[in-house]
Design goal:
By secondary structure, this protein is mostly helical. About 80% of the residues lie in helices and about 5% in strands. The longest helix has 24 residues.
Length: about 140
């Protein structure tokens, strides 16, 4: 939590992390690994990891992740210039997150300490923070 104490930075993450997940799904959907779509593999990996990590949060996060996944692919299939728009969203969301940390937190992002952990936990962090801000 020391990375996200400022409310503005929390809201930036609540909006930007799903945007990064969404755009990553689109960008990786063009690739295959051993005959499987990389976006599909990533989706199932996250679902499995979250179920092992925290089943209560997983029961909320997995349906949200699925909706994000379906929305992203629907956007890709229905938007002729999806690559340009997707890259713009992806890059903008990352820039906003760095601004959130630099301007509002005065610290470096968690990914500077643990890249893998940051990518695994970021979507779950959003679910947890959104729940705590709503309730």
């Amino acid at each position: 939590q020391s990375y996200h104490g400022n409310i503005v930075n929390k809201w930036i993450h609540i909006f930007c992390i799903p945007a990064i997940v969404w755009s990553t799904i689109i960008l990786l959907s063009n690739y295959e690994f051993r005959g499987y779509n990389v976006s599909n593999l990533l989706f199932f990996f996250y679902c499995f990891y979250y179920l092992i990590l925290n089943i209560q949060l997983a029961l909320i996060a997995i349906p949200l992740l699925f909706m994000c996944f379906r929305n992203a692919l629907n956007f890709k299939w229905s938007t002729p210039d999806y690559k340009w728009k997707t890259w713009c969203i992806f890059i903008s969301a990352w820039i906003l997150q760095f601004i959130g940390h630099g301007v509002f937190e005065g610290n470096s992002p968690a990914l500077m300490d643990s890249l893998v952990q940051s990518f695994l936990m970021a979507p779950l962090f959003v679910v947890k923070e959104a729940i705590s801000l709503i309730i």
